[in-house]
Amino acid sequence: MILAVASGKGGTGKTTVSVNLARALGREIQLLDCDVEEPNAHLFLHGKPLGSEPVTVPIPLVDESLCDGCGECGMFCQYHAIVCLGAKPLLFAEMCHGCGGCALVCPKQAIGETERRIGVVETLRAQNVTLVQGRLDVGVATAPPLIRAVKARIRAGAPAILDAPPGTSCPVVATIKGSDFVALVTEPTAFGLHDLRLAVETVRETAIPFGVIVNRMGVGDRRVHDYCRGLGIPILLEIPDDRRIAETYSMGHLVVDVLPEYGSLFRGLWDEITQRVERPA
Amino acid sequence: MKIVFTASADTIQAPLDGRFGRAPKFLVYDLEDDTFEMASNQESLDAAQGAGIHSAEVVARTGAKALVTGHCGPKAFRALAAAGIKVFSTDAPTVADALQRYRAGDLTEIASADVEGHRA
Description:
The complex is a heterodimer.
Chain A: E1 2-7, H1 14-25, E2 29-33, E3 48-62, H2 72-76, E4 82-84, E5 89-91, H3 101-105, E6 111-126, E7 129-136, H4 144-151, E8 160-163, H5 170-176, E9 181-186, H6 190-206, E10 210-217, H7 223-231, E11 235-240, H8 243-250, H9 255-258, H10 263-278
Parallel strand pairs in A: 1-8, 1-9, 2-7, 2-8, 9-10, 10-11
Antiparallel strand pairs in A: 3-6, 4-5, 6-7
Helix pairs in contact in A: 1-10, 4-5
Chain B: E1 2-7, E2 25-30, E3 35-40, H1 42-46, H2 51-62, E4 66-69, H3 74-82, E5 86-89, H4 95-103, E6 108-109
Parallel strand pairs in B: 1-4, 4-5
Antiparallel strand pairs in B: 1-2, 2-3, 5-6
Helix pairs in contact in B: 2-3
């Protein structure tokens, strides 16, 4: 089973849910930190490093001896990564989305491929959890190729939890695509609800079954509950607004290690989700 | 020679647009016969990324050899340089004012981008 933990609003508790769920299950599990611009699961799961591999994306390489400056490559490119303004093409590598189109349309077969590094994928082992995280290089603007490289490390035989980046943009879609279920973490406030609506719209586009986790119960009001009830969206779990949770994670500790009574909350969440995946309503 | 001014309206009195990559229009002035025509830069306004590069392509297609604007970002500058177009930066309020300063030799050619880009 592949569970994606996402949200609309940032800071609602995706990583808190992901890392504590992984630890509370106590069995072999893979946790993939897909927030490659700022991976933070490793702050709570202190793992033994198992490996680190650079990740690259393909970019065009023009053989100027074959190029006659016809400009077909520039006319084809949708991303302004290769443009023809002078005699020879000009490459803006950071704009390239690696589609390979320029190489295909070149009448002189003058465009080959080379690699551009965008970041690394690191694997760590923390007790029962295999943590795989992507770390985007500073200055790189596109996260999805690295997210796909992280997800390529999912192995059959153990469940996988994907800790998604916040929001609803390309990195989030790249993360949740192909998962069996999406848990949307929110807080019961106006900000939480505003962004939850956007996240629900986004997940609906993927047709992946989903539910909501309401974190910091008691800090706001019932508007998120009313919204979910009105649309028939299941509320999978409510986490209380317990100051001890904040104190625990501020020290880089797992809630289920310091406050073991929370273990059953997370195990219950897993049961709830697996039931919904195995027996869709 | 043709020279391009970033503009937000269709006449010589148009305000000179301070940004190159997201300028709505270009006023293409022919210095030889004192006529001008407008070129739309709408595609750059609509572009999610690469607006500066696209704007450079639009300017290159007009056949102009010089550009007068407020500010020019790094990708746009690289593209303009590849096209052999000189870039002049000014705070002149209108195209007419900028043209006058150009003719008087009061404009400074910039040797590199003078602002950061906004996105990829």
